[in-house]
Write a structure and sequence with these properties.
Layout lengths: L12 H12 L20 H49 L1
Length: 94
């Protein structure tokens, strides 16, 4: 009789949870009392307008940074082209 075999039978759920806890350090009991939906997620007009204002301000800041970055890229590209042109002119002289 050969003792080497693979047991494809169902594992006990507690055993699987135990291994998950050991491997990942996850304890499902920690989150047992937390609800998935939060019923107090209500916003009034003031809260919405405050968030809209914040979003607008951050969006404008990001747009300005992007515009500055694009301008710097164009400037570098132009500088690189000028340097290349100068190098070609010097090369033609000699």
């Amino acid at each position: 009789m050969d003792d080497d075999f693979i047991d494809d039978g169902p594992m006990e759920q507690n055993s699987v949870s135990k291994y998950i806890k050991e491997i990942f350090g996850y304890d499902k009991r920690k989150y047992r009392d937390e609800d998935d939906d939060v019923s107090n997620m209500e916003a009034n007009f003031h809260d919405i307008m405050k968030e809209e204002s914040r979003s607008l301000r951050l969006g404008m800041k990001e747009d300005l940074e992007d515009m500055k970055d694009e301008e710097a890229r164009k400037k570098r590209r132009k500088q690189k082209q000028l340097e290349k042109l100068k190098a070609e002119r010097i090369k033609k002289r000699y």
